[in-house]
Design a protein that fits this description.
Layout lengths: L4 E7 L2 E6 L4 E4 L28 E8 L4 E3 L6 E3 L3 H7 L8 E10 L6 H16 L4 E5 L5 H11 E2 L4 E4 L12 H12 L6 E6 L6 E6 L3 E3 L8 E3 L6 E4 L5 E3 L12 E2 L7 E5 L17 E6 L10 H9 L3 E6 L12 H9 L2 E2 L5 H14 L3 H9 L15
Parallel strand pairs: 4-7, 4-8, 8-10, 10-11, 18-19, 19-20, 20-21
Antiparallel strand pairs: 1-2, 2-3, 5-6, 9-17, 11-12, 12-15, 13-14, 15-16
Length: 395
């Protein structure tokens, strides 16, 4: 039997062939007969034709799986496409808007960092200032929620800024890149007026959810509907294949006016998840940090042995914020003695903020002020919808 594929690599003593249908198979090398195939000429790239009468959208590329393909050298998925390539790969995008493209970086999202957030914020800001009616940011899914939250705090936007990614690369038959990209374009031309994440809303190709950037989390490693809004429903949805957009009453709408960029950020912040038996000496590793977010147990607790250590950090000028490891509910350090002791030494309650959102917010807050009391007040304030109002049940 003769098998052909786009990529042949070796792993664990087996020949791995990526078949033309997108799937991989492993074959014993002794069963293989090698045939020489002439090198194909590089294809000529088609010109991207756009209609200037359609809404103007900026696509800002950072890389990620939505902009990935197979690396023939290693057989791994690697980020290689830029924004223009996305338009060529998904022609239907040209029927929704006309696009200006800009590449901030070309990385997989585990390599994202705060300095790139700042560059990205400037890119989005410049696009809006230059007339973009909406912005799409292509991004790897693993850290997309961090970046979306960072841009949400750095940039007060009057138009939609849509982060979109793909759980499965374009060379796979189950790829979600086309539907997600088209849905992001529909959301970017909608009445929305905030930073959001648009990804599959179900395992099927029937709709995408529009998630508020500061209330979304990646909840599964590989499912196409991995992203979920936490503590609230999505702020909208995009039907597929019609690309009809419906927004929740809570969604913030477009408005007139200029974007406001506040990109200063304090990188010397950390996120620490408490576990039973964690030694009180561990926070010493964060000596020199200006801010620390703790994902505590339940209502927001750590061992009583931590109290003196945290008191010392706060007295040295650090801001310490308590969040919870629980998926739902909010911090309340007034119920038990442990929590009351934390409040007495100056630990700030993080309400129901997601720990990673609290970290990004703290970085941004400390970039705006060095005053501990002002920083604490800003952390307690709902600035971008990151803190939910208490429900009737007090949760």
């Amino acid at each position: 039997m003769e098998l052909t594929g786009t990529c042949i690599t070796e792993r664990d003593g087996m020949i791995v062939i990526k078949l033309d249908n997108g799937y991989n198979i492993g074959v014993d090398p002794s069963a293989c007969r090698w045939l020489e195939r002439p090198e194909a000429a590089a294809p000529r790239l088609a010109e991207v034709l756009q209609d200037p009468a359609l809404p103007g959208i900026a696509i800002i590329s950072t890389g990620g799986t939505i902009a990935s393909r197979i690396d023939y050298r290693t057989g791994a998925v690697t980020s290689q496409f830029n924004a223009d390539d996305i338009l060529r790969a998904i022609p239907r995008l040209a029927a929704i808007a006309h696009y200006r493209t800009h590449q901030v970086c070309n990385i997989l999202s585990e390599n994202m960092n705060p300095s790139i957030w700042q560059e990205l914020a400037h890119g989005v800001y410049d696009a809006i200032k230059n007339g973009a009616e909406g912005v799409i940011v292509t991004h790897g899914t693993d850290t997309m929620a961090y970046s979306a939250a960072a841009i949400s705090f750095m940039l007060d936007t009057p138009v939609p800024v849509i982060f979109v990614g793909s759980q499965r690369s374009a060379d796979r038959p189950s790829s979600d890149n086309v539907m997600n990209a088209l849905s992001s374009a529909a959301a970017a031309t909608s009445p929305l007026g905030e930073v959001a994440v648009v990804m599959h809303g179900s395992p099927s190709d029937d709709w995408c959810a529009i998630h508020r950037a500061v209330r979304v989390r990646k909840m599964h490693t590989s499912r196409r509907d991995a992203f979920q809004s936490m503590g609230m429903p999505p702020i909208g949805r995009v039907g597929y294949p019609d690309l009809d957009v419906s927004l929740d009453m809570e969604a913030r709408l477009r408005r007139t006016g200029e974007p406001l960029l506040q990109d200063r950020i304090e990188e010397r912040c950390a996120l620490l998840q408490f576990y039973p038996g964690m030694p009180p000496s561990l926070p010493d590793a964060f000596d020199g940090c200006r801010g620390l977010v703790i994902a505590g147990t339940g209502l927001g607790h750590v061992s009583t042995t931590w109290t003196p250590v945290l008191r010392g950090m706060i007295e040295d000028g650090a801001t310490v914020v308590m969040t919870s490891q629980c998926m739902h509910g909010r911090v309340c350090d007034r119920v038990y003695d442990t929590g009351r002791d934390l409040l007495k030494i100056g630990v700030v309650e993080g309400e129901d903020m997601l720990p990673e959102v609290a970290l990004v917010k703290l970085m941004w807050v400390l970039g705006q002020t060095r005053d501990q009391e002002e920083a604490a007040a800003m952390m307690r304030a709902d600035l971008r919808g990151e803190i939910r109002r208490c429900s009737a049940h007090g949760l």
